[in-house]
Amino acid sequence: MTEAPNRPRPSPAGSAFARRLAVVLCRPENAENVGLAARAMKNTGFGELRLVLDRPLDSIAHKTAVHAGTIIDRARVFPDLEEAVADLHLVFAGTAKSRKNFEVLAFEDALDRMLAAPLSARVGLLFGNERTGLTSEELRRSNFRFTIPQAARQPSYNLAAAVLLTLFALFTRSPTLPRLERRGYERSPAFQGGDEKRGSGLTPNKPRHSCRGVEGLTRSGAAVPTRARPGRTPFTRREMETFRRVFIRKMEERGFIHSTNRTHMEERISDLLGRLALTAEDGALFLALFSKGSTAG
User: Which pTM does this prediction carry?
Assistant: First the structure.
């Protein structure tokens, strides 16, 4: 395990999508969970782990990682979340509960958006502390929030289990992830001819969305491509934070943000700007519109 270098380390995984996704664990308490998360990454073909820690990671993480010790050794350690996600373009944060000022996506919708990210975008998968989850300030560092469905509200998923469930879902949906370890996950003959009958042995159910370049629908009805496409690269989170501060200052100047609504408005604006996944061109247009508007009257 090393302190964060200036440039991101490449993932050892064999697909373009896996190489541009980083798992970010923010303030994990139990080193066992870090090791289990690394094992889940190894199982599903992902290799870049980032940790937000203020103390050395206990060596027990290597024991629970089993054959994924190299992921622990290569993990980048950051003093705070802002630095950990600074060079990422799209960050998806897992949360077990709804948040007042942050929209939360359904699990399937979040997976679709991850896989549909522009090919030039680096994607972050963010999880918080085992007891407290992610704070509102930490959620502000993400573009999208999502929940993993479960049968009961409590208890929430263990940190390592949440990482595994999300990565496994991405693994089974992505057409470019390594196939070698997908033995046993092929459809039974009953599925080959379009028969939708369930329950044939251990063969898994057909995914809700195909990953063969068709459009999926979010629960709100909006079309989301289920395969990554070339496109304009969004702001990195560092660039977005700079833009957000300028945007909020202009809102203050125009009287939209003041002492009585600051927290509420800043969280709503952070949520909106993150979900828009603005590019540099988009940001320049936004600021130009504000500047033009301020001189029009």
Answer: 0.76
